[in-house]
């Protein structure tokens, strides 16, 4: 499959617009990403600054009561599994790959809501600190977030080269990390209240 950056930017813009329609997102919330799209930036590349596309997976147990979080090595905090987009994947494929790589879980499935809506549960642009050792200035991660379901809250087998650990946590722990995603999931009835 051939990757086309122009087509990718158009797909990202369409995803932003559909997400805004579904969740009533204010026009300015994704101003940096929209500006990068308008400028023709290669937002698919992790070497593009001031920002680039990442994806993450909100891994839920079958009931939607618990979420699987990873302890991020370089940021030294608990987060949902995720990472840089890699062409020519789709955004959901990227999120699924990251979840499998970082948690070691098998049998992960994309939540059926995404299959019917074609919309991420959340899109969050956040600043990442500079990493001079990697020649990276402070920059934006434009994170497209997807709900992923795990079979019977199976035991994680994290790749310790990627993360420092993984564990099932109450859904409320995700509120401190990705509050808009939790609010959107609750609004749609995809998790326990």
From TrEMBL:
<dbReference type="InterPro" id="IPR015797">
    <property type="entry name" value="NUDIX_hydrolase-like_dom_sf"/>
</dbReference>
<protein>
    <submittedName>
        <fullName>8-oxo-dGTP pyrophosphatase MutT (NUDIX family)</fullName>
    </submittedName>
</protein>
<dbReference type="GO" id="GO:0003824">
    <property type="term" value="F:catalytic activity"/>
</dbReference>
<feature type="domain" description="Nudix hydrolase">
    <location>
        <begin position="50"/>
        <end position="192"/>
    </location>
</feature>
<dbReference type="Pfam" id="PF00293">
    <property type="entry name" value="NUDIX"/>
</dbReference>
<dbReference type="InterPro" id="IPR000086">
    <property type="entry name" value="NUDIX_hydrolase_dom"/>
</dbReference>
